[in-house]
Design a protein that fits this description.
Blueprint (H helix, E strand, L loop, with lengths): L2 H11 L4 E6 L3 H8 L8 E6 L5 H9 L7 E4 L3 E3 L3 H10 L4 E7 L7 E5 L5 E6 L10 E9 L15 H11 L4 E5 L4 E3 L3 H13 L11 E3 L2 E3 L4 E2 L4 E2 L3 E3 L4 E2 L4 E2 L3 E3 L4 E2 L4 E3 L1 E3 L4 E2 L4 E3 L2 E2 L4 E2 L4 E2 L4 E2 L4 E2 L4 E2 L2
Helix pairs in contact: 3-5
Length: 324
Amino acid sequence: MPFLAYQLSLLRCHGISDVVLSCSYLVDEVRETMGDGSRYGVELRYAIETEPLGTAGGVRNAADLVAGRVVVLNGDILTDMDLTAMLAFHAERASAATIYLTRVEDPTQYGLVEVGDGGRVLRFLEKPDPAHVTTDTVNAGIYILDPALLARIPTGQMVSIEREFFPGLLRDRIPFHGWTGNGYWLDIGNAETYRRGQLDVLAGRVATGVAPAGAGTDRRWMAEGVRLADGVTVAAPAMVGRGSELGPDCRIGPSAVLGERCAVGRGATVEGSVLWERVTVGDGATLRDCVVGAGARIGASAELGAGAVVESGAEVPRGARLQG
């Protein structure tokens, strides 16, 4: 399932069906995958950046395709936040801009946002040292903007929404608020959080509104054409993609995602891991808490441990040991 499908589902569930995707990288591939959005219940259009325009410039580049209030989502956020409640908060406060905030255990990896009475935004602090942490609420990458604000962003220029646009709102004393939500939230921008997001979707920890493909019982899903040899164990939660082959006495799960046409050898174990399509796992290999790219080949008796990442098309030799 394309990750963007989860974001489109979130928008649709909260009554937003007119969506513009701001793209600058692999545009043709994204368009081929996502189409016009009809399969996800929205109308999807594309605003193309010939040169990267930054987080605010990309919004301005898409502005001519929309009218009225704008909801902006960073493209790497997995969440089931209550967008309807955030929109109501925005209206109640007569805010011109509202930013979604979430609480995190380690704020030093994010942009901190300090708020005052009524949620009024007071200050931004980008990835501070531990000694300078003043709050645990961070920029969660979802914004509501009244249309008049878009004119503040120059067209065709690289502009940061975090470092230029938002501080400008504070400087000019424009009504700007932070709404703190309690729903699931995860930035999947690195390999470990990507893996965690995959497994959280699998385990039902985040409400996506998108059903997995294939027949599922007890959080175990098998897509069409999966072939299971004797002695296979599939421990929930687990998802096995279309056309995959599971060899004798192998073990899949708990917490395993296999893409289409994967092949797992005799006695191999795949646990806590995400395998893209066409991955081959040799006899007796062990994969735990790792990510394996498309078409990779894992040799017999190899061991991949926590944090290991194997790029697409790579080959891990027989008996090799990899750790993140």
